[in-house]
Amino acid sequence: MTTPLIDRVCGSNFSYQHHALDRCLDDMAELGRTSVELWGVAPHAHVPRMSDADARSIRVAAAARGLDVACFTPEQVAYPVNIAAADHDLRRQSIDMFRRAAEVAVELGAPLLFLTSGRGREDEPREAAWRRSADALGEITAYAASLGLASVLEPLQRVESNLVTRAADAARMLDEVSAANLGVALDTVAAAAAGDTIDDYFAHLGERVTHVHLIDGSPTGHLAWGDGDLPLSGIVASLDAHGYAGLATVELFGDGHYALDPRPPLERSLRAIAAASAPAPDAE
Predict the structure, then answer these.
(1) CB within 8 A of 144, min separation 6: which ones?
(2) Taking Cα atoms as reference points, which of 203, 132, 139 lies closest to residue 164?
(3) Is the peptide bond before 111 cis (omega within 30 degrees of 0)?
(4) Which of 20, 47, 75, 232 has the fewest beta carbons under 10 Å from its own?
(5) CA distances, 192 to each of 155, 226, 270 (Å)
(6) Three-state SS at 213
(7) Does the structure show a pLDDT above 90 at 54?
(8) How far is residue 27's CA from residue 65's CA, in Å, rounded to a whole number?
(9) Mean pLDDT taken over the chain
């Protein structure tokens, strides 16, 4: 029997960017989390400035609270990081950033590196940018594999990328990259924005869905559960029906107010997920 989803929800520093990382880790432990997805954002874990010792200090701080780092997610949906960039130097620097992020993940003790496809110019053929992205993902995942890491590719919203935005795009990219250590992260907001369902993701990808960002939206917004209108109970039921046994992270951004006092909306989201994860009264 699969462990209830609430027991597989990671803590994270999403929405804690204006607070000390120690406060975030304290909150995650107090909220009953045992693992965290670490967003590689300044000032907590900015990849270009992180030393191996910096990463190890985060690992130690997490472990002191009974936490492990389950996934490292470097900030990447912002200029100038773009593995599909037409500019050769920017693309090379972006790939090198992810190679360094893989090294940081090892020092953090994180077995999983989080990736996205980048984006092409809106005024160029999509296939040209697609090829740049696929080649870059091939290089990054090969390097990650050499370090013993798995990776996940997250489809983005169309405003964030013109490449991998749907489950079908993700399936095509995984087929082309053909890396045994590359899976897909299902983001409930990105899926809703693209018109995809949980069933669509599993129809296209099956067991290659290996991570989930579980957030509410209207349909977008990366909101706390209850602040949007996505069907949490139906989402959890669909994940269960497909035998999803991996981790999920509540990736809160919202309109910015979550960052002022990040714990209450996360706490509220965890309660909602716990309720949605509870077995039916007549279940054995």
Answers:
(1) 102, 105, 113, 150, 151, 181
(2) 132
(3) no
(4) 20
(5) 11, 16, 20
(6) strand
(7) yes
(8) 10
(9) 96
In this structure, what token pair is assigned to residue 267? 């706490």
Rounded distance, CA 200 to CA 271, Å?
27
The whole-angstrom separation of Cα 137 and Cα 115 is 8
User: Is-above-0.85 flag for pTM?
Assistant: yes
C-alpha 132, offset from chain centre: 22
What is residue 280's predicted lDDT score, i.e. its pLDDT?
A: 66
* Distances 36 to 67, 84, 110 between C-alpha atoms, Å: 7, 28, 9
Residues 6 or more apart whose CB falls under 8 angstroms from that of 87 comprise: none
pLDDT digits 0-9 by tens, 24-34: 999 999 999 99
- In tens, the pLDDT along 83-106 reads 999 999 999 999 999 999 999 999
- Domains, the chain, ordered by start: 5-275 (3.20.20.150)
Provide the terminal-to-terminal Cα distance of the chain, rounded to the nearest Å: 11
| Cβ proximity of 164 and 155 under 8 Å | yes
* Run of H or E residues at 137: helix 126-146
Q: Please, which residues have CB within 8 angstroms of residue 99's CB and are 6 or more apart in sequence?
A: 139, 140, 143
